[in-house]
């Protein structure tokens, strides 16, 4: 019997998000990091969640630990690394969308090595959630994720892999090789359409889903922004429509989807219904600013779906 629903692994970061108030541009502090956001989303949607990473022994790291404590995310295996810093990033907005600036080189999380992966915690989880960003931040972090995937497979822990592509972190050819190898070790592939087109060289959602299934995963949940999600298994493919809302900031919407999808899938086992639930959670997450603050809770998502 597994004692944990979702274990996420990667790099959490402190976030500073641009807002305009009284004619001034301000940057409000918050929290980010794709897999950390997903862990919080999973916890808010009823999953027993945990996180593994390394943080700097600094005020930013302490703030992130405080976030997980408040959200009920188990951080018992998180490493505190003196002499290394916790990553931070800035989000700015303009007519073309939102833009990111990072201060993460040499961060504590980028120094994680395979030997530091908490194998017992991976084995205790029903799902291990990681992303391409978790592997892009350094060679040692990349190797650590592959080691975690190996441990998960041996322990019967399902793996969900988000193909989040950040070309500032690594070249496309290396990203393709690593992502495809990781998806081949995963149960659930979680690509976004724009990233998947770059990673696969394919265009249509159907082709992309078939490609990821051909690598060996059993579920593909391809998010397509305002066009919803396409969910594919070896036997069935469906488009799950998006839920329309008056969005103000889409930062972290994919992470909201990830956590909500896993929380619902672990309850129901139905990837199609879970994607509809996750679409609703992602839509609600765009109603506020920042990656974590607007993440909805299960009661919010259920009320929203009941009103649709």
From TrEMBL:
Molecular function GO terms recorded: 2-dehydro-3-deoxygluconokinase activity
Keyword Kinase: yes
Pfam families found in the cross-reference section: PfkB
Domain Carbohydrate kinase PfkB: 30-296
InterPro entries: PfkB_Carbo_kinase, PfkB_dom, Ribokinase-like
Cellular component terms (Gene Ontology): cytosol
An example Gene Ontology biological process: D-galacturonate catabolic process
Keywords for the protein's UniProt record, in alphabetical order: Kinase, Transferase
Family: Belongs to the carbohydrate kinase PfkB family.
Protein name: 2-dehydro-3-deoxygluconokinase
Organism per entry: Alsobacter soli
């Amino acid at each position: 019997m597994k004692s944990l629903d979702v274990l996420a692994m990667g790099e959490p970061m402190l976030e500073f998000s641009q807002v305009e108030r009284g004619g001034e541009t301000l940057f409000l502090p918050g929290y980010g990091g794709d897999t950390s956001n997903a862990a919080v989303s999973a916890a808010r949607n009823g999953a027993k969640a945990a996180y593994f990473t390394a943080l700097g022994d600094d005020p930013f790291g302490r703030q992130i630990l405080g976030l997980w404590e408040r959200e009920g995310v188990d951080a018992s295996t998180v490493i505190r690394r003196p002499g290394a810093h916790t990553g931070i990033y800035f989000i700015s907005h303009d007519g073309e969308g939102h833009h990111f600036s990072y201060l993460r080189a040499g961060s504590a999380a980028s120094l994680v090595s395979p030997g530091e992966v908490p194998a017992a915690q991976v084995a205790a989880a029903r799902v291990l959630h990681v992303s391409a960003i978790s592997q892009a931040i350094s060679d040692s972090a990349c190797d650590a994720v592959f080691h975690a995937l190996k441990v998960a497979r041996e322990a019967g822990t399902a793996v969900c892999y988000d193909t989040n592509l950040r070309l500032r972190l690594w070249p496309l050819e290396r990203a393709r090789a690593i992502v495809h190898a990781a998806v081949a070790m995963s149960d659930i592939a979680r690509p976004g359409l724009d990233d998947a087109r770059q990673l696969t060289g394919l265009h249509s959602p159907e082709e992309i889903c078939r490609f990821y299934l051909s690598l060996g995963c059993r579920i593909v949940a391809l998010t397509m922004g305002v066009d919803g999600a396409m969910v594919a298994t070896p036997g069935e493919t469906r488009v799950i429509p998006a839920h329309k809302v008056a969005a103000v900031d889409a930062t972290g919407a994919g992470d909201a989807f990830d956590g909500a999808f896993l929380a619902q899938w672990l309850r129901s086992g139905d990837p199609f219904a879970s994607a509809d639930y996750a679409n609703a959670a992602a839509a609600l997450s765009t109603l506020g600013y920042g990656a974590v603050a607007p993440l909805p809770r299960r009661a919010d998502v259920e009320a929203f779906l009941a009103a649709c």
